[in-house]
Design goal:
The chain has 66 residues and is α+β, with helices and mostly antiparallel strands. Helix content is 41%, strand content 30%. The protein has a single domain, classed as hypothetical protein tt1634 (3-Layer(aba) Sandwich). The chain has a 3-stranded mixed β-sheet, with helices on one face.
Length: 66
Amino acid sequence: MSVKDKYQPVLTLGEKLGVKDGNVTVEDGILKVKGQAKTQYEKNLIWDKIKETRAFRIFKAAVLTF
């Protein structure tokens, strides 16, 4: 299962919120989520969704760029 598949709920929420250029990758064991959210509130919703994802627990760090 790819990282994109594991984080599909995060990407789906991003699409629902209208986040532009959403992407999830892993580099050197670090989860990287990128996109352009309209507000800090939307960014927080996405971060909460990331933390709900079981796969999140395997990463030593995460970078959220919005």
